[in-house]
Design a protein that fits this description.
single chain, 4-stranded antiparallel sheet, 6 helices, 4 strands, 63% helix, 20% strand
Length: 177
């Protein structure tokens, strides 16, 4: 209450001309504050809205294209049985060795291994799963050690040497889609 009384008495002590100038000054300050904090930011946003909307539309189109690509990658392309079988047979000779035999019985693929290298077998199984979409049904495998490795190292060899000499024989059955 004290401040109001002081302001009122100070106002009354001013001449009419000073009061008009004070009202004009306060009005100018009020308009400057209103422009700086109220109208200028809104006007700037309004001016850039069309450009920003175009940028957002472009980003939306890009996101929709990426979404379509992701969906396409999530659903693998279906391969026909003949193509899947051809893929398995061609890769079997190069990865599992020339002695590997691949035969089709209904929707099952039987692979007979004689001395398939471990790394080739792992690569071939990954290829069968990813490309041909074949699912393993059963496997009867026996690990072989080469005669050279057995004679040279009767005790277990280090992992890297052992891996290079490890061979597998047996049968793997896969189900085609």
């Amino acid at each position: 209450m004290k401040w109001r009384e002081l302001a009122s008495s100070a106002w009354k002590q001013r001449s009419a001309r000073e009061r008009r100038l004070l009202v004009l000054g306060i009005s100018v300050l009020g308009l400057a504050v209103l422009w700086q904090w109220g109208l200028a930011p809104a006007l700037g946003t309004w001016r850039t809205a069309a450009q920003r909307q175009a940028e957002l539309d472009q980003q939306t189109r890009q996101m929709l294209q990426l979404q379509a690509q992701a969906r396409q990658l999530q659903t693998p392309a279906r391969m026909s049985r003949q193509d899947a079988m051809a893929q398995l047979e061609s890769s079997a000779s190069s990865l599992l060795g020339q002695d590997a035999r691949v035969s089709l019985q209904g929707d099952l693929v039987r692979v007979n291994l004689v001395a398939a290298p471990a790394s080739g077998l792992a690569s071939w199984l990954a290829l069968a799963r990813e490309k041909a979409q074949a699912l393993p049904q059963s496997a009867r495998l026996e690990q072989l050690a080469s005669a050279k490795a057995a004679a040279a190292a009767p005790a277990p060899a280090p992992a890297s040497a052992s891996e290079a000499l490890t061979r597998w024989r047996g049968e793997i059955t896969l189900r085609l889609p």
